[in-house]
Amino acid sequence: MKENKFMQIYEELVENIKQKKWPPHTKLPSENELVVTYNTSRETIRKALNLLSQNGYIQKIKGKGSYVLEVSRFDFPISGLVSFKEMAEKLGHESRTVVEDFELIKPDSELCTQLNSTSRDSIWKVVRARAIDGEKIILDKDFFLQKKVPHLTREICEGSIYEYLEKEVGLSISFAKKEISVDEVTEDDERYLDLKDYTHIVVVRNYVYLNDASLFQYTESRHRLDKFRFVDFARRGI
């Protein structure tokens, strides 16, 4: 039992965090205080705290102690092609979409590269802030080739664009290439999202293709750091 004592302490600390004994962003008791509370060694406490840190429950700051992180994160599927509307319905939380920008533009050189297009092509630009439980925590920047999506309106963008494209236009959306990075926040992030004090943001870049393998959409989906857990399912091939 002695060997597993740090696990027992870890599990009790996890339960206390989940029960909001120590709410998010508050400081845990010091190592010395935990040594006294659990009548154990400093090494055992450190093992428990390291496990808490590895599993995303706390952040250890040198010279300051351990601080509780927000653990009520939403699962964001990496491998699937899921619209925000579909994800929000699955989560069962109150959600809202705010269209911050909607226009037909000519692409700059960077966007031409992302969409494999030319400067003569017309591009639908759609910027939408996504709110879950009253907080704006996702900023989606979508770009669609007009030659693939001839018609689009602000009203459609307030709902589900994919639902419109598949059911009304008849497009067969097939697959996407995704890139995930952690970037510094931009002016748009600060303007449209409830960022709190976060200085970085998780960016998922999607290159979306139709059944004929033609690229028709490029998206930057920008997520507040503390609100999402990115999940995937992997099977080992033999």
From TrEMBL:
Domain HTH gntR-type as annotated: residue spans: 3-71
Record's keyword annotation contains Transcription regulation: yes
InterPro entries found in the cross-reference section: Bact_HTH_transcr_reg, Chorismate_lyase_/UTRA_dom_sf, TreR, Tscrpt_reg_HTH_GntR, UTRA, WH-like_DNA-bd_sf, WH_DNA-bd_sf
PROSITE patterns: HTH_GNTR (PS50949)
Xref: Pfam families: GntR, UTRA
Keywords (A to Z) from UniProt: DNA-binding, Transcription, Transcription regulation
Designated name of the protein: Trehalose operon repressor
